[in-house]
Structures are given as structure tokens and as C-alpha cells.
Fold these 4 entries.
Entry 1:
Amino acid sequence: MTDSGKPEIAFPSRIGVWWASETWSITDAQDVAREIEALGYGSLFIPEVTGKECLTQSAAFLSATDRLVVGTGIANIHIRLPSAAETGGRTLNAQYPHRFVLGLGVSHAPLVEHGMGGTYAKPLATMRAYLDKMAAVSEVIEPGVPRPTRLLAALGPKMIELSGTHADGAHPYLVTPAQTQTTRDILGPDKWIVSEQAVAFGGTDEDQLQRAHQHLDVYSGLPNYRNSWLRQGFDESDLVRGGSDRLARGVVGMGSVEDAAASVTAHLDAGADHVVVQVLGDNPMADPRPALRELAKALPLG
């Protein structure tokens, strides 16, 4: 435990990376993780949508690096049993103490019901029940090893509250620094907040906006994010497919590389413990290294 009472996460830096590598071969993706570590970033958070299983990927990235923290951003609770999530997390924490973060989320109704053939109902109750079942797993599994730090994909106030009572904090995604501040106000000082910040720099303003709108295209059709943006002060006119220019500029850091870096550190100033930056390229799984090299020069990674 840290002095504040939070479970320990051995972040080498307060700024990390969020990257979707599902279409990459794992050996090539491990090379990316090694360079992310060498550049001074403190973490690599990976998603779980319809491609690779994220605990297996996490093990591969942890084994390929020495200090990098690896987190799931977010492991879909509809994909695995609570006991599998708990025991898998414990095993990774046993092998790589304080370097694995288990981020969990309820996903989205269209993905769960149409993409997976599952049932999406009462997300708050579903998550609470899932976490209770995880907590009930016997201590004979990896005896003497604490469970990894557990974060929830929490956007609404009730899920944020649950991330404080039943987990170790929140992993906000596609939020403004003001929402990071709101999350901190709800959770208080003794819970982790790892905020994600997308950035687009290089090229013209039009180029950057195009990348931002492309990034927001799928999310703008999902009720969870639409409701989140309305709570953050945007309105229905911003919720067009791909988002309005106002929404794009509000949740994606654009401009110069220094402007992009400032959008990342704004979350730290607002109360985040750690921020993971997602660089937007021509497609969601583009090689992030060229942009990360440039961005590293403008960020306080030491």
C-alpha cells in the first residue's frame, strides 16, 4: 500500500500510453512496448473489443519489458467469468508485482447483444455482482499474493462511486480535464484515477480534425459516451456522427506538439494520478512510435 492507502502501482512515470495493438503480431507489438518503455513512458494500457484476449496480451507485454506497467483499458466483463478475471489478475501480479492493473468495464449494449449474443442489462448492478464474485475467490489461489489494482471504466456518477467502494479507482476515457476533476471530487484522495487523453498533432488543423472525427465515429453512436458528453456540458448538437468540431476539440488534444502535451498534463493538474495518451493516426491500430517519440520531448516523463 502507498502512504495514501492506495494499493501500489509501480509507475516509472505519471504519463503512459493507450494503444490498440490487436491486429499486430504479438512479437511486433512487444517491440513497440519496449520502445514505449525506453522513451520514458510509464505504462501501456490496452483495450479488449473483438480481437485478442487482453490478459494474454498483458502477460506478453509484461514479459517483454522490465519496468513498464501494463493495464487493461478495458477488460470486458462479458467475455470471462469473474473467477477467471480474478485468478488471471492474481497470477500476473504474482509474476510481475505492482506492474499489472486490471481495468474492468461493462462494455456497450450493441457490442454485447449483437456482437457477442449476450445480455446487457442494468450495468451498475451487473458490475457490482461481478466484483462481489471476484472478491469471493478463495485465497488459496496465489496464496500470499494480493490481487492487482482494480479500476473501473466509470463515466457516470454511480459507476464512479462504485469504483471507489468496490474497486481501487477509475479509468475515465474520452473525458475532459473537468470530468477528471469531477471524478476526483467523487472518489476523494485515496483512490486511483488513470485518465485517457487522445491527441492529434502534425499536419494542418483540418487534418487533425479529420483524425479526431474518425476517432469519435464509433463512440458517438454509443449511448454510454453520448450520455457522458451531455453530463460534461456538451449538447445534442455535438452528438452528430463523429462528433461536432466543438466536441472533437474538447476531448482530443490538438494543435502543436506542445498543445497536445498540455492537454495530457491538464488531467494531472485536475487530479489524475496517471494519464495514458492515445496518439491518433490514420487508423486506430497505426504504429504510435513516431508520434510518441516527438511527444516524449514535450512531456514531463522524468
Entry 2:
Amino acid sequence: MSLVSRLRSPAATSPVDVEAVRAALGVVQDPELHLTLEEAGMVGGVEVARHGVVRLTVRLTTPSCPMKAALGASIVAEVGAVPGVDRVEVNFTAMTEQERMALADRLRGDMPAAGLAFGPDSRTTVYAVASGKGGVGKSTITANLAVALALQGKRVGVLDADVWGYSVPHLFGVRRAPVAIKGLMLPVEAHGVSLMSVGFFVTDEEPVVWRGPMLHKALQQFLGDVRWPDLDVLLIDLPPGTGDITMSLLELVPDAALLAVTTPQPAAQLVAERVGRMARNARMPVAGVIENMSTLVCDACHESTPLFGSGGGQRLADVIDAPLLGQVPLDVALREGGDLGVPAVLGSPATPSAQALSRIAGQLPVVRRSLVGRKLPLTVL
């Protein structure tokens, strides 16, 4: 594929400095690798022809690169600003297998050992977002908290561990598959958040019929085989209940802190207590409780109705000895944001639900697992 862009009329005759073209090309970053084209080994030939025409060859990791258009636009913008350049022609080709292997080795170079991503030495704060039952809006809370944190300047990732009921791709409005390079995956980015979900690998209609060992392996790969950026916060969207994935998470990410989501009515609160007790029994720190759908807000009259009762969030917080971090009302903007793939905190920041979620994101406590009961590292003298 070639991209041709005429920047000015061909009247200019000043010579083009090849080194200036290479320098301009050197500042362009691949939007998914977050490496310059030079660092990633993606720069091929650079030719300066007469009349200010510059011809470039860029080697992509895959011919079907979903960010090809964005990358081409960045190249044209940078190279086109070089004095004397009137026309930029970009020819996209694919890397050879040897080049892909070299890039994969380069990317793995600064990754932690397999299975140790987000371990005790990690600077990333990890929250496991859980609920006792489905339908309480746990994934919607996760998506909005992630975007709210990103808007506050944090580097944020979301791992969609709700394998059977994955909804993160829909909530973020992305459908493309992650880039995979020799067994290494790169998270998909949307709204300033790095994402990984089994939903990126299957169609919307395809059911995921996995049992315990496969679930554990999938979570292990999402943590160990994904080149996550240097995150400030990772949110893990768990499936409802206390099943296999939750137990695997306790093993693979021992420093994750629980965020329990419930709605006000006792039916949701009582079931969520089991998740909180499981966390306490496993010495998993509990960051707090979020009560979703606390009231139904009427957009026309601005009145609030406790459609699902009241007090469930505080009762849950009291039982599991954790703070109630906030109450999120249900309004049209929150629902529409999920349907459109633009979370409410970004698409409708002035609405009651978005404001409540932004407040919660701004005061998330950082809690760590107690050293009591944890194996301490030994130094051999």
C-alpha cells in the first residue's frame, strides 16, 4: 500500500536535506508499539527525488495494521515540514520473519519474568473489580473509572477477566484484534486506556466455553504475554461470584485490591458479601465498596428515585469492614455511553453519574496486602 500526499505546489526548487528527512522520520512513533520507527526497525528506504519529492518505505509488523492510516498521517506531517519537501510518498511493506523476531526480542527486553507482571515489586496499583452477581453494572463502573483516571493524568490499563460475559470491547467502542508479534501481544488502546479482553479474539456471537485450566491459562497469558505499558493503575474486571478466575487472580496478582460493586437492594448486597468475605479470608486487601444504581435520575425533572431501595452499599461496607467509596446514580447518559462505546465520564462529564464516578476515581485508596502470612525473600550470605 502506498500513501501519496502533495503538500504544496511543485514550484519550490530548494534542495531537500536527506538527513533532515531522516531526523523528521526519527521522531515519528508507531501508535501501538510506542517506539519510534527507527527503534522498531520499521524504516526502510529514504529517497529524495527532484522537485521536492520524498519517497519512503516503512515496514509494518503486519500488512493489515489497523493503525496504518494514523501512522501515515504522522509521517506526512513530520516529513512534510522539512524545508523543500513538496510531496511525500509512503510505501508500506511488511516485516520479514527475522525482523519480526528481532522486534519481539526488543519488546521482551524490558518485560518482567513470565507470571511476575504486577507482582510485589511493581509500581502499578491493581484493583480487582468484583460483584456477587451479574447485572449490577460492574463492567460499566470499571470502564468509567479507567477513563476518569486517564483523564486525571494516570496511565491506566483494563484487563477484562470476565471471560464468559466480556463487555469491555463494547464499552470502549473497539473491535480490532491486538497486534501479536511472535507470541507477544500489545494491548488495544481506546480513550487513553490500554485494554486486553478475550472479546478481541472472538466474534460477538461466539460463546466462550472454557473450564478452570483454560481460564487460568488465559489470565496467565494476559498478564505474562502482554507487553503492558508502565501503568499507574490496572483495573481487572472479574466475572461475578467467587469462581475459578477469582482464585487464579489471587495467585497470579497477589497485591490486587478488591473493589466490590453492588446495587442498593439486599438481593445484590447479600451475594456481594460472599466476595468480600472470600477476599478477607484470602488476606486480599479491600479498597472499598461502590454502590451503583443508587437512584434513578429523571433527565427532564431532575428528580431522583431510589428505584432499587437504599442502604445496600453501606450495609456491605459495614459487613466487610471497608469504606463506601461512593454512590453512582443511574441516568440516561451512563446507559448511552455504554451503548455508544464512549464512557459517560468522557462523553457526558457534567451528568450526575459521570460526576460521581470521577469523584470516586479521584479518591481511590491505595492498599497493599499485609506482609503477615507472605513468604519473605531470603538473602543467602
Entry 3:
Amino acid sequence: MPSNQKYALITGASNGIGYELAKLFARDQYNLVIVARHPDELERVASEFRQQFGVEVVPIAKDLFQPQAPFELVDEVKSRGLQIEALVNNAGQGQYGEFVDTDIRRELDMIQLNIATYVVLTKAYLREMVSRGSGLILQVSSIGGELPGPLQSVYHGTKAFVTSFTEAIREENKDSGVKITALLPGVTDTDFFNKADMTEAKLVKEGHRADPADVAKDGYEALLAGKDKVVSGFMNKVQVAVSNVIPDNLVAANLHQQAKPSTKDE
């Protein structure tokens, strides 16, 4: 396919890991379809990438909390006659607090964004990719999907779904010519924790936050190499490996302590 016909569709592309992934695709001369909620932020990013990389950038503002939004996105891309060579499901949010106290409407919105949107977009574009025998799908999951997450129970549950779902469809389509990879970051320096009201959690306030550019690079390189999944960051790899040999109740208890509000002064 001529390079100027290649499009990468990236959700949550206006900041954080999604922005850094969009930059990597643009640097390799993919045209972009970038998706986020706020039109002004999308236009700013689109202008930046057009100027910096000389690629076409199509910004599409969608509130992916809404059940119909991913279907509308697929229809709009189709109406523009764009062929998606790479799909990056990145948009996701969390909520901090004990499950008995948290807002069920917010949690249902998270399930819609973190799970249903991934499923709808993957279904639509995987079918096209399999039919032509090529394509790339990067699913941004989390090490949270590998670990029980007290004070983030629904978020961790959604990411467990994403990782399991990705591994299953990868096996189903391993001979199709389509590369499917799950990226599992840990705590990363993005706006995620502000949106989740989690900035005071010990693991956020006192712990190391990865650079989203480094996380994106790990995911991008793993995708191009055809790897099944990549845990970004050495200490995150260690944490996941240790959790596989320690009883789940002890892992949960440890993470509960890490997630509790910090008592450390600024």
C-alpha cells in the first residue's frame, strides 16, 4: 500500500500515551484518524502533526462513553473512504474509591469506554484487516489487568477483560497476517489519575510515574515486532512476575496498601 494511503486510527489521541503513539505512527508516515472528546484539543494536535510530519490528520470528536459513539465513528470513517491499516484502542478511564461508595453510573460509563468501545472498533477493523490479510491492532491495557485492584476494582476488571480478549483474538487470527498486541503500562505520568480522582493515592503521589513517550515506544515496537503483549517498564515486569507466584489475596492486600491515600506531605 502506498505510504500516503495508510491510516492509523487512535482513540484518546489528544494527550498521554495516545498522543505519543499517534506521534510514532505519524513519524513513520501513517496518516492519522485521531479521536477524543474535545474538538479544540484534537484540532491543536492535528495541526501540530500536519506541520511536523507532513501527514494527513483527520480529527473526529466523539464521546466514547456513549454506546452509539463507536458505531458512529466507524460509519464516519467509512463515509470518508478511509482504509484503517492500524487501530490503537487507547482511550480509557478509572475511578478511585471503595466499590460500596463509588458511583455506579460512572462505573457503567467506564465499562462502556474501556470494554465496549474496544470490542466495537476491534470487530469492525479486524474484519477488514483479515479480509485483506494485513493490519495492526494495539490494545492499550494495563498491568492492572494482571492484578486485583482494591480501590480501583472496576478499572482493573475492565483491563483484565482487555488483555484476555486480546490474547484470544490474537490466537484466532494468528495466521491472518494481522498483528495484534496488548500494551500493559503501569503508573504513567498522564491525566488519568486526575480524572480518576486518584492523585493522593500512595502509589501515584509517592511512586515513580513512567514517561508516556517511553510507554508508547514499548508498545509501538512490540506491535511492529508481532509480540503478543508487552509490560512496559522493568519494575512493572517484576511486579507482574511476582504476582504470578504469590497468592492472590496477598497481592490484593499489598496493592490495597499501595492504593490508600498518602500521608506524606508535599
Entry 4:
Amino acid sequence: MANLVTSLCCVVLAAVVVVYAQKRTQLAGREQYQEIGRDVTMQCGKLENNTTVSWKVNGTDVMAQHRLEGPRLILSKVNLHHNGRYSCFEEPAGEKRDYISLYVGLPPSKPIVNCRSNNYPKSFYCSWHVLETHIPTFFEVDVQHNQQTLDVNRDPVHKNRCRVEFPEVFSTSPYKVNVTAFNALGKAFTTHSFEEFSIVKPDPPEGVTAKPIRSNPRRLEVSWRSPSTWPDIESFPLKYFLRYRPVIQEQWQHQVELSDSTSHIITDALAGKEYVIQVAAKDTEIGTWSDWSVPFHATPWIDDPLPITPTTEVDTPTETRTSPIPSSNAPQKAEPPVGRAARVFTFFSPLLLGMLLLFI
């Protein structure tokens, strides 16, 4: 008898486990993606077509334009406002049967790819971007040179960037970079081809400064350093481009192309005017000019005002009199308060003395 009871308990327990597992499977939830502007149909689990269900989105009734077809919810021309978690409930008991996380977005466009070497001849990097998709989008990158696949080092911070080492220097064979963008709604790819020399572009010069030259009100001594990212300045020298203008002007006064020198003296500055100065760099043989450096502001030498000393002649105003008697129309010179008080005391002193004698 005991064995029979034990067997029945095991059977009941197994049935409970099966039912619980089925419910867990039904409520596991899933993600669903749909393109902006299209209709989307969401199925409530594996319920039969004649089952009546109700739907909620983020815990509230579905207010967007929709229709119900048995266990299915159909939303019309979805947009970003339709994003959310949709839950379905079997009627009439109202038991929750399923939920779907809806994400509305776009398939990726063709990636726009740009490649550049700012540390030639060590390596180059490529970056790319696509139009906003509103849903997670991923990228695959493949780089070919001389029918060989090169190692691609993906940037650990920027998902849309990678770096590739040059397999050789001064190669005339083109490079091909294939970038494929894909997400839950589709994929697109772009092939970008270039020659080695065309992508060499240094970073801007660093530490640009300018200082006035003593007693030279039209000169500024400008200096700078080559970009720290440029690895071999001796084997691959840079030339520089200098531009400057007064702050009060919008047009650049002069633009000067220089050799590999990292300094230059401006000789035609406007005296006393504040200047804006920038420098760009370029490999002497290949590539393109860098971006401009951070603007630096400087003013040429301004002489100190002449100090006043005992030997310095200083113009002082002199008083002139046209008549010993001031004119009645001319303002009278104010008397010192002390002198006026003295005359008043002199006038009243005999009277005060007489009054004192009467009391005595």
C-alpha cells in the first residue's frame, strides 16, 4: 500500500512539474522587430485561432490603432511610439499567456567609410557610420591587400572604428575595405578602395605659441611642435602651413607655406592688434594637409608709457589774471572757513565784553 501511495505522489508531482514548465515556456517572452511605417502582427503564444484574448502595452490598454483577430494583435503603420512590452491575457479568466517586446526601427543604410593614416608608415584606421536605425546595429569589417586578408583590430571603445597595420611601405597596390552593417531588419555593405599615399594625413601640430619681440610692434615669434602621433619625423619629415589674422578681421591676413622648420617670425602684424594664429602639417612628399591647430591668440610688443621723472618735462596749467579786480560776473573765490569765523569773532567781541561788565 505504501508503495502505491508513493507512486501516486510521484505521478502527481511529475504532472505539476510539466504544467509549470509549460506555463514558464509560454511566459518566457520574446523580442519582435518591425520596420517603421509597416503593419505588425503579434501572436499570443500558441493559442488556437478561436481563442479570445485581450492585450496591454506597458501595463495599460492598447490605445493605438489596432485590430484583434483571435489570439493576434495587429498594429497599423507602426512608429517609434509603438515601442513597448505587449502582454496578452486569455479570456474570460484573464490569465496572462504571453508577452512580446516590440522594437520599431529601420534596416541599415550603406555604411559611409573613411580611412586615414595619422602615424604613417605604421598603420591606418577606418571609421564608418550609417543613418540612425533606432535598433541595435552591428558591423563586420574585412580588409584586403594584394589578395591577402589583413588583421583588423577593432577599437575597444568605438564600435565604428578599426585599425590595420601596413603590410608594406610604398605599396602601389590598392586596399579594399568591406564594411557590412546588419540588424534584425536587414543588412547593407560598402566596399571602399584607396591607395596608400592618398590616406596619409597627420594630426595638427601641437603646442602652438606666439610671443612679442621686444621693441618690435609689428612682429610675433611663432613656434610649435610636430604632432606626437607622427612616429618618425626624421625619415618622414613634415612641412607646415601658417595662417594668421587680427581678431577684428574675418579674413586671414596671410597664409605661409614653410619647410620643416617649427618656428616663424611674423613681420607684418598690425601694431597693438590681437592676432589669431593656426598651423597645419603635411608629409613633405605624400598625403594631405592636417586639420588646423587650436587657435592661439597673441599681441605684438606694445611700448610702455613714458615714466614721469624729475627730469621729465611735464606740461602744467598756469593761472593768468586779466585784472587785479575780479569782474562782477566772474565767480568769486571762496574764502577759507577759518578766516570768516575770525572776522565774526572780531565784530562781536566788544559787545560781549560790555555785557560782561554790566553783570559784574
